[in-house]
Structures are given as C-alpha cells and as structure tokens.
Amino acid sequence: MSKEIGIQDVNIELSGGTGGTADKTAVRDRVLSGMQPSGLLHVGNLVGALQNWVKLQQRYDCYYFVADWHALTSNYADPAVIKQYTDELVLNFLSAGLDPDRCTVFVQSAIPQHAELYVLLSMITPLGWLQRVPTYKEKQFEIKDKDLDTYGFLGYPVLQSADILAYRAKYVPVGIDQQPHLEFTRELARRFNSIYASDVMVEPEALLTEYPKVVGLDGRKMSKSYNNCIYLSDTPEEVQTKVRTMMTDPARVRRTDKGDPELSPVYQLHKVFSTEEEQQYVADGCRSASIGCIDCKKIVTKHILTLLEPIWARRKELKDSSTLTDVVRAGNARAASVTEESMHLIREAMRLQ
C-alpha cells in the first residue's frame, strides 16, 4: 500500500492549530527518513528531499536522522570525514527549515537500539533477499574505487529496515523508483510477525512524493560522486561562476546560432527553478537565437540565488551558536525513548525478556 502525497497536499495544517502552527497535542502518524553524511548537500538534495521534509513536519510526527552508520558501508576506510559531514548535514537540515519544535532531528549512531534491532533482524533475513536488492549489484558496478564486497554493504537493507521499524513509522517518503527498497522492509516486518506470532512490527507505507531530477553542471544527474554540484555551502560568487560555465547546446557556438533547449543542461535547471513563462521565453529564445546563453543563465542563476539566500543567512546564524548541539542532544533523547519502547515490545515478542 502507498499513499500519494504531493507538494500542495502537505501544506494542509492540522485542525486546532493557531497562527499556522500545528496542534502539538494531536496524535499524528509517524514519518521517518534519513540522509547519509557522505558529502556536502547540494540543491538537488534541497529540492528533491529537504523541501518536502519541511512541509511534512507540518502534518506528521517526523523523525529525520543523519545515517552515519550507513555512510560506513561504503566509506569505512575513511571514517574521519563522516563526523565532519554529520555536523554539516545537521546544519543544513535546520538551515533549510526543519524545526526541532515540529520534528525530531537525531544522529543514527547515538541510538544503540538501531544496532540491536539490526542484529536481531539479520538473524531472520534470508540471504537471497539481500542478493536480489537492485542497488546491490548496481552500486558495485558504479563505484569502482572502493571495495564493496563486505558484509556491511550486503546487509545495508537490514540496517535500513531496522531504522524504520524501530520507530514503528507508518510512512516513509520515497520516490516511485525507491519503492522496492521499502518493500524489503515490509517483507521483513511480515516475516518477523509471522515467526514470532506477533503484530509488533508496523509495515511502513510509502509516502509517494515527486522528486524533481536536478541536472548537474555537466548534464548528468547532480551528484556528489560526479563533482558536478551547486552546494548549499557555496558562496554567491561560486554559484554564479558554476552556472556561467555550464554546458549548453553544443550547436550554439556563436550568439547567432539557433539551438535546441532540450539539449542544454541549463534549460533543465530552468524546468526546476524558473517560472513557466520564463521557461517558454528561454526555449523560444534558444530556438530563434533571440537570446544568448549568458542571458539564459542569468535568469536561472537569479532563482537559485533567491532560493539559497535565506539558507545562507540561517547557516551563518547557526554556526555562531550552540543550537546544533542542543537540537541533536534533545533529538537523540527523544529518539532513544521511542526506540527503547519499541525494543521492549520486540524483545517480549522474541521471548528475550
């Protein structure tokens, strides 16, 4: 089962709220999601996930975490950078609009119940299930510079399941292409309940969301591994330089050459950041050569800068305070309380206590 939810849908406030604030006394369905601290966040992460998370916190009981143990599955040889990226990730979570009064922000490794449930679930997970996970072979093929023939990498889906099931989350926000990963968790929950004749495990449902594809500076999907990103930590000057030097339609060698906007990565950014009128203006101008590539780039740069300006201001404010530490400490405490309650029920179901 899944529930479709669009960007407009999640703007709905709970009844009983005042001044645009949701009623904190109401019982809300729980949502859980996380990100790996494997590098700096970019605008693709912002429009593809974080903006949606901000909206979801208005309507659901949201738990958002830094998946630092997950980062170890592929970055185990250089774990020192994970702490650096963890701090940066929390900074971006709050800068993008996550409100610790409306959601719980925590770090995975601070909650030992994740590891305990991971171990227990690994005892009942068929090996064939893990070998059939689509991304297992795909990532091994894509990532050539790291040895991924490890137990940790193979068992990644079990840890992911433990993250979700420990919170008895009803929903997990995913794109359509990510549903098979969530189905693994649902199957594992059913297997647990069947083996131990219980209803302890909550089968999470997909909270389907539209994740716009954001192209990178080279025309491929924006990705830290491709080094083709506009980062949330970039300066305005860096953003302007990156967009100004982006690829466009190769046919437009001279200003007077006509082009095809669909062949230009810059136009793909317009589809995400610019208005429909501006998209039409740019497309027509490219085909007729009535505007140059620099003019085209200036328009989308303006929108990206407008999007990032409040985030930059918030980042500066948070860097000069103890807010990050306080937020994580409080979030870890709430997460530990919820997961320990779940683990008590799980241990009872398995007759371990």
The CATH architecture classification of the largest domain is: 3-Layer(aba) Sandwich
Q: How many domains, as an integer?
A: 2
Q: Order of strands across the biggest sheet? A: 1-6-5
> Which spans have pLDDT < 50 for at least 5 consecutive residues?
4-22
User: Largest beta sheet, briefly?
Assistant: 3 strands, parallel
Instruction: Quote the beta fraction.
Output: 5-15%
Q: At the third CATH level, what is the topology name of the largest domain?
A: Rossmann fold
Report how far the terminal alpha carbons are from each other: 33 Å
* Helix content, binned percent: 40-55%
What CATH first level of the largest domain would be assigned? Alpha Beta
Supply the helix-strand structural class: mainly alpha
The number of helical segments is 14
Features of the shown structure:
353 residues; 14 helices; Tyrosyl-Transfer RNA Synthetase; Rossmann fold; mainly alpha
Describe this protein's structure.
- By secondary structure, the chain is mainly alpha-helical.
- The chain has 2 domains: 241 residues, 3-Layer(aba) Sandwich (Rossmann fold), CATH 3.40.50; 84 residues, Tyrosyl-Transfer RNA Synthetase (Orthogonal Bundle).
- The chain contains 14 helices and 6 strands.
- A 3-stranded parallel sheet has the order 1-6-5, covered by helices on one side. A 3-stranded parallel sheet has the order 2-3-4.
- Helix 4 runs parallel beside helix 14 and helix 8 crosses helix 9.
- The protein starts with a strand and ends with a helix.
- About 5% of the residues have low confidence.
